[in-house]
Structure formats: structure tokens, C-alpha cells
Specification:
This protein starts with 5 loop residues before the first helix and ends in a 7-residue tail after the last strand. By secondary structure, it is of the alpha+beta class. Helix 4 packs across helix 5 and helix 6 packs across helix 7. Bound molecules: zinc ion.
Length: 477
């Protein structure tokens, strides 16, 4: 059957054509896929090779620590190298008790290395200890601008200053004020840890000038300054310098004696409240008694000190009391006032009939001129005849207030006997006492002469009561 259904053929043809086109498209897609796969494979290979190279390189590099250009240690990685330095610094801090650093040039650098050369951070830390010199960023304490010590840090500097103040403060005391008189400052400087001081040693240097307050405790009553000096092979002179004013007599068992002179760097002033039992001085009441001779006195009631519980505000400078003022007090034992009777009686009498005898004769001799009107004037003394050079005696004990040239008096002496009474001796050829000296009754004070307004050698003698001359005969025996 040749008859072909044309429509069918056409339909088939169309179907065939579509199928052929479809096949062409399918082949192109496969090519593209192959290409992409190839690229991916090659890319992966490249990445893998690169990663291998990087990995390989990483595992063959060490990290070298060098100090001042000299290689000290090789570690596996940078963090290990840093850990080694940290361990070194921690060990130093542990040894000294404070943070330290170092001055040298220290570097960490990657370097191709053989794994066999790698060491641990602990080992590297020990090697660093051999070649690094530790330094401290120290706090230098300045007292009035002068550096006195290096401390590890400012906190320790402040701590030591507080310790110095606290040394003079006891538990339970009431403190009004505690201060350091000097200007204190802190500056930062790099220092070797060997030069650093801290704690009680630093405090002692500030307070005593030496790391230790070296003392000796008296254990026997037989000890003397000499025996203590001898025991410590020092001179008595040095021991005394360390303990101003201390003598062998002051030594008591249990007493602390310093063995080195204190040279404090600071002046610590503490103002504190102190309560103590102390004596209350008695008062003296004087009653004049006209029945008793002038110059005599009698205790009617003996005085007796009382006692009080006193609260004092005390100022101490480096532990020594420099002043104290009473805040309050309660008298526990009243003092007894001393009552004294003082004689005021002056006997007025003339020579020969027994004067008061308050003063004695300064010179024995003829009276050549009496007290009273003389010529056109007035004679304020008594002239006693004598020869030049004869000794003159003090008429009463007292204090020399004049011993000099006095114009018409010539060389003269005036003695103050107290209670307004004085005596005067004029025309002397020689004075053997000086102003301010104390003389006793009858003591040799000078020689008869004829100096000044005098017509011949004699003693002009005056008795002065409250600045006014009186007839000496009334006061002589
Ligand atoms: Zn005279």
C-alpha cells in the first residue's frame, strides 16, 4: 500500500524534526557540565596544593625570642613565645613581691626552624631569667626635695608613710591629729629591684635612719653605760649620742637603750589625748605678823600636794612629748594650802641702846658724821672713820645691784636685801664684788678709801628702805 497518509507523514516529519532539535540541545548542556566539573576539580586541586604549602610552611616555622639581637629560644608559635615572657615576669614578681619589667630590647620573630629545636615556654622562661635584667618602675620618695628611698610603687610609698605616722600611735588612743612636717612627694624612676625597700624596713629608715631600730634591753641592775657600750663594742660617747641625757643612774631593768643614734628622715607630730593621775601643787598663803621680826618666817600649816585625774592634749614629736595642755581634770585628793607667817616688826633704837639689828656694822670705827642736817645740806648716811685698805663687810645678805663709780660717792656698792631694804657703801678704794653676785652677811665686799667727794678715808654708809634713806643707827645693833 503506497498510499501514504500525507497528513500523517507531515505529522511524523514534524515529530522527527522536534526530536532532532531536542537532541542537539541536550549535547551542548553535557559539554558545559563537563567544563564546570573540570574547572571545579582544578580549582580544588589548586586550593588543596596552596593549603598544603601553607600548612607545610606553618609547621616548619618557629618563633624565636631574641634579647639585644641574640637568639635565646625557639618556640612553636607566637603565643608560646609570649607565654614564656609572661612566665618570666610572673616568676620575677613572685620573687620580689611586686611587678617588674626589663630594659633590654626583646623581639619575637617567625623563623624557619627544625622542630627539634623547639623548647617549652617554661624552659624559655628560665633562659630569659639568665639574660634579662629586671627593673622596676620605682616610686622614689622625696622628703623636702631630697630622695630618701625607692619603693616598688606609689601605693607602697603611701603605705610606708602611714606606717611611719602609725608607729607613734597606740591602739585605743584618741588622736586629734597626726602629720608629717616635711614636704613629701613621689616621683617615678626605673631602678634595680635590689635598691627597692618596703614594709617595716622602709618605715624604720624614715623613723630611725637605719633599717633596724637597734636596741638593748637592760636586764640587770649592775649594768652601766660603760658595760653596755663594752658589750656592743661601741664607745660610751656614741652610746650617749644615741641616748641624749641618759646616764648610768637612769638605767632600770626592762629599759630600752638605743645602740645607734637616731637620724630620722621625717618629723612626725601626733596630737593625742592622754589621761593620767598627776600631782596638784599646793598654794602658799602668807600672813604678816607684826610681833615677829622682819626677815623671819614660820610655817603654820605645811602644804601638801593633791592629786587629780587629768585629761591632757599632748603633742608628741617623733614620740617625745613636746607640749601638753589640760583639757579637763577631776581632783581626787585636794591639796593643802601652806600657811606661812612673815615677821614685819622693825625695832627702832639708837646705837648703844640696842638697835633692831636688822643690819650689822660694815666697819668698826668712830662715827665722824651722823645722819641728818649738815651745814646747809643734809647728810643721808653715817660716816665711819677708817684707813684706806680696811675691809668692809656686807651689813646683810643680799644681791649686789651697784658696784661702780658714782660721782660724789666715788667707787660705791649697793646691796639689795629684799623686801625693800638696801644698804650703800661709798668712797671705796677697791671693790671686790660684781653686780648680780650674791653676798652673805659679813662678807668682805671692798676696801675703805677716799674716792669721790671725800675729805679723808672713811666709809659713807646708807640704809635705804623703799628708795628712801633712813638713819642707819636705827637698823644697826
Ligand atoms: Zn658721808
Amino acid at each position: 500500500m503506497k498510499t501514504i497518509d500525507r497528513q500523517k507523514v507531515e505529522k511524523l516529519s514534524a515529530q522527527e524534526g522536534r526530536t532532532r532539535g531536542h537532541l542537539r540541545i541536550s549535547n551542548r548542556r553535557k559539554d558545559l557540565q563537563r567544563l564546570i566539573s573540570s574547572i571545579l576539580i582544578v580549582g580544588c586541586l589548586v586550593v588543596a596544593i596552596w593549603a598544603s604549602v601553607v600548612f607545610f610552611q606553618a609547621n616548619n616555622n618557629g618563633y624565636v625570642i631574641s634579647v639585644e639581637g641574640q637568639e635565646i629560644a625557639t618556640l612553636t608559635c607566637e603565643s608560646e613565645a609570649k607565654a614564656a615572657i609572661d612566665k618570666y615576669l610572673q616568676a620575677q614578681a613572685g620573687e620580689f613581691g611586686y611587678e617588674v619589667t626589663y630594659n633590654q630590647d626583646l623581639k619575637i620573630e617567625p623563623r624557619p626552624a627544625d622542630q627539634c629545636n623547639f623548647i617549652s615556654s617554661d624552659e624559655a622562661a628560665l633562659l630569659l631569667d639568665d639574660c634579662l635584667t629586671p627593673v622596676v618602675e620605682a616610686s622614689i620618695l622625696l622628703v623636702d626635695g631630697t630622695p630618701v628611698m625607692a619603693l616598688p610603687n606609689e601605693k607602697e610609698a603611701l603605705n610606708v608613710l602611714e606606717k611611719a605616722k602609725g608607729y607613734y600611735i597606740n591602739d585605743g588612743e584618741i588622736i586629734y591629729d597626726a602629720k608629717i612636717c616635711e614636704e613629701v612627694a613621689v616621683v617615678t624612676e626605673n631602678r634595680s629591684p635590689d635598691s627597692i625597700v618596703m614594709g617595716d624596713i622602709a618605715r624604720n629608715i624614715l623613723l630611725f635612719g637605719s633599717p633596724q631600730d637597734v636596741t638593748h634591753t637592760v636586764v640587770s641592775s649592775a649594768e652601766t653605760m660603760w658595760s653596755i657600750a663594752n658589750q656592743y663594742q661601741m664607745s660610751v660617747n656614741d652610746l650617749q649620742k644615741a641616748n641624749p641625757g641618759l646616764t648610768s643612774d637612769d638605767l632600770k631593768i626592762g629599759m630600752t637603750v638605743r645602740l645607734s643614734a637616731i637620724q630620722p628622715k621625717l618629723t612626725v607630730v601626733v596630737v593625742k589625748e592622754v589621761t593620767k593621775t598627776q600631782a596638784v601643787a599646793y598654794q602658799t598663803k602668807t600672813i604678816d605678823n607684826s610681833d615677829m621680826l622682819r626677815g623671819t618666817q614660820k610655817i603654820i600649816t605645811p602644804g601638801k600636794a593633791g592629786e587629780e585625774e587629768a585629761t591632757l592634749k599632748v603633742v608628741e614629736t617623733n614620740g617625745k612629748q613636746t607640749s601638753a595642755s589640760k583639757i579637763s581634770s577631776v581632783v581626787t585628793v585636794e591639796p593643802v594650802t601652806q600657811v606661812v607667817e612673815r615677821g614685819t616688826k622693825i625695832i627702832v633704837a639708837s646705837r648703844g641702846s640696842g638697835g633692831s639689828g636688822i643690819v650689822s656694822w660694815p666697819l668698826r670705827g668712830k662715827i665722824t658724821s651722823y645722819f641728818g642736817p649738815r651745814g646747809r645740806g643734809y647728810h643721808f648716811g653715817l660716816d665711819i672713820d677708817g684707813t684706806t685698805g680696811q675691809h668692809i663687810a656686807a651689813a646683810e645678805s643680799g644681791k649686789v645691784v651697784c658696784a661702780c663709780w658714782g660721782g660724789g660717792y666715788g667707787y660705791y656698792i649697793k646691796i639689795d636685801h629684799g623686801d625693800g631694804l638696801s644698804t650703800l657703801y661709798a668712797h671705796l678704794s677697791k671693790i671686790v664684788v660684781s653686780v648680780g653676785s650674791t653676798v652673805s652677811k659679813g662678807q668682805y665686799i671692798g676696801n675703805v678709801g677716799s674716792t669721790g667727794n671725800s675729805s679723808g678715808s672713811h666709809l659713807h654708809f646708807e640704809v635705804i628702805v623703799n628708795g628712801k634713806q633712813y638713819n642707819p643707827l636705827n637698823y644697826l645693833p
